[in-house]
Specification:
Three copies of one chain form a homotrimer.
Chain A (H helix, E strand, L loop, with lengths): L1 E2 L4 E3 L2 E2 L4 E2 L4 E3 L1 E3 L4 E2 L4 E2 L3 E3 L4 E2 L4 E2 L3 E3 L4 E2 L4 E2 L7 H5 L8 E3 L4 E2 L4 E2 L3 E2 L4 E2 L4 E2 L7 E4 L4 E5 L1
Parallel strand pairs in A: 1-4, 2-5, 3-6, 4-7, 5-8, 6-9, 7-10, 8-11, 9-12, 10-13, 12-15, 13-16, 14-17, 15-18, 16-19, 17-20, 19-21
Antiparallel strand pairs in A: 21-22
Chain lengths: 152, 152, 152
């Protein structure tokens, strides 16, 4: 693991060859090999990031997000686990939080918001999209809310 | 007040029990009790944040934003006070800047842009929305631009 | 040049009177005089920023972005150079990356995503827009995707 300046990594398992840039805040995550993580990225606990993936600067990966191998996450991508926030504060439990699965080889453009959905294998989400529904495998989506615009 | 690493807080009044995480930049703000502020949050001067509110990571709270009690602000929420920027640079005065009021118990999802409006009591703004008009009390809005989708 | 706390500036040329705030990450950029750069801004190499421009907090200026003079970039504006990411990882070459030109006096509101386009002289992009096509000079656009809404 190679880390930049002022980066915080605690309680995490980080694979060989992974690079984490500056001003990151990572806790309780399981991150594979040869992953690249840009600056100002926060990754919460109960997350997985597969080998060879890229998480670009300013992104937020919340608890219960499972990212496959060779995935590309653009800049300032916000994942969501609580669709009725703040449920933990209201109920004292995290049981309402939902999982997100971003499958192998998926690409998510910059500036997207990703609700707790499954984004399929090889699928592509256009930059600036708001993803509120599952994306099938090998499918391109874009827009707010994101709609299918073609196949990969 | 409990602060994380590399956080800057100046000229601010911070209530008991408030937690501020890492890499924050807060100046000239009046922040209540038991507030939680995530990492990478900038809060400008001439702002108020009420007791028990949450400001999530990567958000920007600009001057003239007044946030009530028990409000939830998601991640990467950008507030706006200047609808014809950069008016201060152009005119030498901040007189064109407008106020935003986010009322008690309001919820603003991640990735929203909030123009200088009033967001009503108990109201909910869906993640990824661009809020260009006032939101009545007890109302759900979503989209770009945000439209009313129901009552709370 | 005046820099804030914890800011990283390497291999860059910075003009007189330019102010860079906290937690920035700037490398290989040519930045003019009297520029203001907010906190949490990343500016990559092969970029130009003209005199008297403002780059607001949380924004990302990627390689091959050329910003003119007296330009205003709002908060959390994400520029894009790769419309089929991650092309560098896939091909080993940056030849698929495209240029963005943001012309003199242009204004880009907060929360925008800007594809590799030309944004014309004096033109204005509304906050929260996704700019996928060139914007003519003296033109206002807004929306996702951004459409022409008037003249300046």
């Amino acid at each position: 693991m190679k880390t930049g300046k002022n980066t915080i990594v605690i309680d995490s398992k980080i694979g060989d060859g992974t690079q984490i840039w500056h001003f990151c805040n990572i806790y309780g995550s399981k991150i594979g090999r040869n992953v690249k993580i840009g600056s100002y990225v926060e990754i919460q606990n109960k997350t997985n990031i597969g080998d060879d993936s890229i998480i670009s600067s300013h992104s937020f990966i919340c608890s219960l997000v499972d990212i496959g191998k060779n995935v590309f996450i653009g800049h300032s991508v916000m994942t969501v686990n609580d669709i009725n926030p703040p449920s933990f504060k209201r109920t004292g439990s995290k049981s309402e939080w939902k999982e997100t699965k971003i499958c192998d080889n998926a690409v998510i453009g910059s500036g997207c918001v990703v609700f707790p959905v499954r984004i399929g294998i090889n699928s592509v989400v256009g930059a600036g999209s708001v993803v509120t529904e599952d994306v099938p495998d090998n499918t391109k989506v874009a827009g707010s809310p994101a709609k299918i615009i073609g196949k990969v």
